[in-house]
């Protein structure tokens, strides 16, 4: 497995791994869908995304940019998405249900409910970047990235996708790595993936 | 290395075991009933396929009440070398509800990793465990991953566990999206108006065929092919043209090394929503051309969300083994698009290969190509019935 590119965002800055860039920002609300340092074209409904979806979307945009991979509307890419974190969708679930209860338990809010799946942030990412490979959330108790790498690797060797994006989204940020199987160097790449949260200041 | 299923168990609103589900859908019975577990006065739909025996005030969560007896009954099956894959969308969501409403629980009790630990403990402490969630295709994706791990030689045996329950959380959310039929789901019907929610759980123990034969295990069937894709289209609706599902089916045929004309039947996702059923028919027609016997069980069992794929895979294997496909429960006026494909009557079936498909929010699609075990002396069919009754 090879890391073709990686991007990350934390509560103060975002950047790319190969390009070794880091840009400061004020707050997540200030990041616009038209931010040319991040996105190639505007992200529809970006302001409506929940925070994990924003983290995932920014991280993936930066990872693709870091890999110099062109994407655009209508240009479907055979790339899959594997998302991971330790909290699943629990914060979004609590937001949805608290709102439902506060509103008298009569009508749920659809635009909160759509984020109540652990895979919801990946769905937003797939729609914007036109990624048509497998989409799944996976996690283990030990938070072991080796398992996630192996799952990505299997999906590629199975022919389910040409490449996989391994995406982590959890407060206070996220990171994404674009993986392919051109070289067989799993150990160094696992080590690399482990270093990205440190570089990103997420640990 | 072929990946085969050697043990399976399920629970649905029809009751414990495959036989209850099989007999129910083959008799055209519907397990969707008025909801009494929580207030539904505010919602247009007041029905769902609930498991009556589950107790919202019990010590165990709703999904653990489904899973614990099932897994404890299989004690003796486990070894530390078995990998565990848990497929679910919301897991112990009732704990989160309690955390919000009563403060008798912490919302963190609904973490999927916590559920994974509990299941692992019941299964003798499997430490090689992972949660997989891909909306309503979760368990289909988990079975695909299990088969891939076995075929690649990485794992010799994988236990796939799937579960999802109905709570006020889930019911209100689907209501808000106006996804529920006010009455009961009618998959592939001209007058379909949405899905009915259902709850259920299940498990399958998969292993390499070599290991199964070495251990002299009866083989229920083979997971021969699998495919996964995404529509990249909409957060809750499928693509209108079925291209994503078509791609997943083609991948399943490819990984199985089987031509489309070898497939004899389809267990469709068939939720009963206008868009899903139409999308599926477009995909099936694009891949297979000529009509294939197709059915959906969701008009009877309800849509069991993350566990649907596992439940339907087990039922599909049983159908081809028994040589009979159930009619589609709730179907009365076949939609023009599905004419010649679906029926509300049971049909005989001599197919060796059956396709089972599922799709979900976010545009996820997954397809499994299942192969019945060549039965000699009928031992596998008898075993399946006796094991799951």
Give the secondary structure arrangement, pairings included:
The complex is a heterodimer of chains A (203) and B (389).
Chain A: E1 2-9, E2 13-16, E3 21-24, H1 51-66, E4 79-84, H2 90-102, H3 110-113, H4 120-129, E5 135-139, H5 145-157, E6 163-170, E7 173-180, H6 186-199
Parallel strand pairs in A: 4-5, 4-6
Antiparallel strand pairs in A: 1-2, 1-7, 2-3, 6-7
Helix pairs in contact in A: 1-4
Chain B: E1 3-12, E2 15-16, H1 18-26, E3 33-34, E4 47-48, H2 62-73, E5 83-87, H3 93-101, H4 112-122, E6 129-133, H5 138-151, E7 157-164, H6 168-176, E8 200-208, H7 209-214, E9 221-230, H8 243-256, E10 263-267, H9 274-288, E11 293-295, H10 298-301, H11 308-322, E12 324-325, E13 347-348, E14 353-360, E15 364-372, H12 379-388
Parallel strand pairs in B: 5-6, 5-7, 10-11, 10-14
Antiparallel strand pairs in B: 1-2, 1-8, 1-9, 3-4, 7-8, 9-15, 12-13, 14-15
Helix pairs in contact in B: 5-11, 8-9
CATH class of chain A: Alpha Beta
Listing every helix as H and every strand as E from the N terminus to the C terminus, the arrangement of chain B reads: EEHEEHEHHEHEHEHEHEHEHHEEEEH
Gross morphology of chain B: globular
Shape of chain A: globular
Q: Approximately how much beta-strand content do the residues of chain B carry? A: 15-25%
Give the distance, in angstroms, between the N- and C-terminal Cα atoms of chain A. 24 Å
List the domain count of chain B as a whole number. Answer: 1
**Oligomer type:** heterodimer
Low-confidence stretches of chain A: none
